């Protein structure tokens, strides 16, 4: 049987193909996401996966017309904050690769790890991650405008940005705990 081992901050080794609840800790996920730069580092300033998750969550509190108000529920906030949680263990893969046949294995592993995280930290087997896709698309457009300078997006002044990494990790952690996410599996 194949294994994909990763070293955890606790010093333990976990198999990503058989991730156990006791291997999953919210603080570690938040820390790791705050340390990973989006867009393979191709941004003029450091912009972490954690910042991206926090900004997606902010869309549910915004007045952006692309956000359906009916979906402003705790479940949608948790889905927004956790949608990239698997990247804490797998890293952030750029979309041009991720969404091709070359990225298929990554996508399958990402879904498997995200499901393990969701089960370990919440009372649900899965969140409706597909329901946040329109907000995610809008945020990606805003990020492209901010970081690529191509003018495709409105620049959102209230996006989380420029904070120190420990504060970003702490903000992500606190929001998830307030929403009822468990601290560990």
Summarize the structure.
This protein is mostly helical and 185 residues long.
Task: Jot down its keywords.
Hypothetical protein af1432; 2 strands; 185 residues; mainly alpha; globular; two-stranded antiparallel ribbon
Can you give a write-up of this model?
Helix 2 packs across helix 8 (165-178). The chain has helices at 26-34, 49-59, 74-82, 87-90, 95-98, 104-121, 133-148, 165-178, and strands spanning 5-7, 13-15. The longest helix has 18 residues, at 104-121. 33% of the residues are buried. The protein has a single domain, classed as Orthogonal Bundle (Hypothetical protein af1432). Strand 1 and strand 2 (13-15) form a beta hairpin. The two termini are 24 Å apart. The protein is built from eight helices and two strands, in the order ββαααααααα. Strands 1-2 form a two-stranded antiparallel ribbon. With 185 residues, the chain is mainly alpha-helical.
Helix and strand topology:
Elements: E1 5-7, E2 13-15, H1 26-34, H2 49-59, H3 74-82, H4 87-90, H5 95-98, H6 104-121, H7 133-148, H8 165-178
Antiparallel strand pairs: 1-2
Rough outline: globular
Binned strand content:
under 5%
Model regions low in confidence, pLDDT < 50 over at least 5 residues:
151-165
At CATH level 3, the topology is Hypothetical protein af1432
CATH top level class name:
Mainly Alpha
| CATH homology group | Hypothetical protein af1432
Q: Give the class from helix and strand content and strand pairing.
A: mainly alpha
- C-alpha Rg, in Å? 16 Å
> Any idea what the CATH architecture is?
Orthogonal Bundle
- How many separate structural domains? 1
Number of strands: 2
| Helix percentage range | 40-55%
Strand order of the largest sheet: 1-2
Order of helices and strands: EEHHHHHHHH
How many alpha or pi helices? 8
């Amino acid at each position: 049987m194949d294994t994909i081992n990763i070293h955890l901050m606790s010093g333990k080794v976990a198999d990503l193909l058989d991730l156990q609840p006791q291997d999953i800790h919210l603080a570690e996920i938040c820390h790791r996401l705050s340390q990973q730069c989006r867009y393979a580092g191709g941004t003029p300033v450091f912009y972490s996966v954690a910042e991206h998750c926090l900004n997606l969550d902010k869309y549910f509190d915004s007045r952006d017309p692309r956000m359906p108000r009916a979906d402003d529920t705790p479940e949608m906030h948790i889905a927004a904050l956790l949608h990239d949680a698997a990247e804490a263990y797998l890293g952030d893969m750029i979309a041009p690769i991720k969404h091709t046949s070359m990225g298929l294995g990554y996508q399958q592993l990402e879904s498997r790890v995200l499901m393990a995280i969701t089960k370990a930290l919440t009372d649900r087997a899965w969140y409706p991650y597909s329901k946040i896709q329109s907000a995610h698309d809008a945020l990606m457009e805003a990020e492209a405008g901010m970081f690529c300078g191509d003018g495709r997006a409105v620049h959102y002044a209230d996006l989380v940005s420029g904070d120190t990494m420990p504060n970003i990790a702490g903000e992500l952690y606190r929001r998830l705990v307030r929403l009822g996410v468990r601290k560990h599996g």
